[in-house]
TrEMBL record:
Pfam families for the chain: Ras
PANTHER family linked: PTHR47978
Family: Belongs to the small GTPase superfamily. Rab family.
Matching SMART domains: RAB (SM00175), RAN (SM00176), RAS (SM00173), RHO (SM00174)
Superkingdom, taxonomy of origin: Eukaryota
Protein name, UniProt field: Ras-related protein Rab-24
GO molecular function: GTP binding; GTPase activity
Length: 197
């Protein structure tokens, strides 16, 4: 696992912004022009601090193209957490995200799932309307015991918060303590961060 303490995998259709999400978190950069589609998977790592200790998150950005679908199983094997991304403005990507989650649960039932609605800036700026009702996504997330967050790699909205929550969850000793963490995060960003578990 390339020396990482925890393996995190990014899943979702192509062009939903997985690579942008990882680059914003790792490099704190956003590339306006389109990325070249990921082939297979890309890896990056970052040291994070939580609970007074340091850990390395190993992050796998997987290709969203159907032709690499079978290969993705290799990358989410033994993952501690999975960020399943969908584009808030494209309904089909949400439907596909649900398929990814079903597939993931069939193979890695202990992997924690974080559902991520990307491109929040596009919705907030009125460029495109949200294609999936916020309440529907939140209800779905609660039903599967996942955390839901809306992010923008362009502005950085909730990107660092998402990965920090994952790091915190990876080392939380009990579900009660995790619930307290969720309450704290929820009170900080109730308008753009929706946490359900």
């Amino acid at each position: 696992m390339s020396g990482a303490d925890f393996k995190v995998v990014l899943l979702g259709s192509e062009d939903v912004g997985k690579t942008s999400l990882m680059k914003r978190y790792i490099q704190d950069k956003f590339q306006c022009r389109p990325h070249q589609n990921t082939i297979g998977a890309a890896f990056a790592s970052k040291t994070v601090s939580t609970r007074g200790r340091q850990f390395v998150l190993g992050i796998w950005d997987t290709a969203g193209s159907e032709r690499y679908y079978a290969m993705s199983q290799l990358y989410y094997r033994d993952a501690k957490a999975a960020i399943v991304c969908f584009d808030l403005t494209e309904r089909v990507t949400f439907d596909r995200a649900k398929q990814w989650i079903t597939e993931l649960r069939n193979h890695e039932e202990n992997c924690k799932i974080y559902l991520c609605g990307t491109k929040k800036d596009v919705v907030d700026d009125g460029i495109k309307a949200s294609a999936v009702a916020h309440e529907r996504v939140l209800q779905y997330s609660k039903g599967i015991g996942a955390v839901y967050m809306e992010t923008s790699s362009k502005t950085g909205l909730n990107v660092a918060e998402l990965f920090q929550l994952i790091a915190d969850d990876c080392v939380l000793p009990s579900s009660n303590e995790r619930n307290e963490s969720i309450k704290l995060h929820s009170s900080k960003k109730s308008s753009s961060c929706c946490l359900a578990s």
